[in-house]
Amino acid sequence: MSTPLKYTRTQVALHWSVFVLLIVSFFSHEGMKRAFGTFLRNGTAEMSTGAYVHIIVGIIILALVVWRIVLRITNTAPPEPKGGLLGLAAKAVQFILYAVLVILPVSGLIAWFGGVHDAGDVHEVMFTIGWLLVALHIIAALVHQFYWKDNLLARMK
To answer: The CATH number of the domain where 138 resides is what?
Structure first.
């Protein structure tokens, strides 16, 4: 099997879809936070549109990330542009980002549907780590594109 120069259209669509849904999740998380707090205090939740959106988007993100992982395992990926320590760091960040993108919605689902406060705490921590990793991912892509000028972004078009 030859090594492709780009990701497949499906992989690209999944990548950008998860990114957009993460933004929706970010803007809907306050509604979910209020609903979860009410649920923990009273045993019932006052559901807002934001809370519903957050739950639905989280489930969709989980499904898309699992699909993306399956495709990553079953399809050959484009070659990495940098080797050595930078290549190892890129692989580590990518692995951790995938892990966070699975743990984040799973912990949210366990917190909400299982009423597990600790899972909610894990969800909050993963939320912060996830955004830090997304920012690092974006910065690294921009460094590749504009400093090293290796046209890395073309792999994800």
So the answer is: 1.20.950
Alpha helices, H only, 75-83: none
Q: What is the pTM of this model?
A: 0.93
- Pairwise CA distance, residues 143 & 75, whole Å: 26
Q: Burial, 101: exposed, middle or buried (Cβ in 10 Å; 0-12, 13-18, 19+)?
A: buried
| Residue 2 predicted with pLDDT over 70 | no
Domain count, the chain: 1
The pLDDT tens digits of the residues spanning 90-141 come to 889 999 999 999 999 999 999 999 999 999 999 999 999 999 999 999 999 9
Angle in degrees, 0-180, between the axes of helices 84-114 and 9-42, rounded to the nearest 10: 40
Determine contact, residues 78/3, Cβ cutoff 8 Å. yes
- For residue 148, CA distances in Å to 131, 142, 156 come to 24, 9, 17
Assigned domain for 2 exists:
no
Could you give the CA distance from residue 98 to residue 92 in angstroms, rounded to a whole number?
10
CB atoms under 10 Å from CB of 140, counted, come to 17
Judging by beta carbons within 10 Å of its beta carbon (0-12, 13-18, 19+), is residue 141 exposed, middle or buried?
A: middle
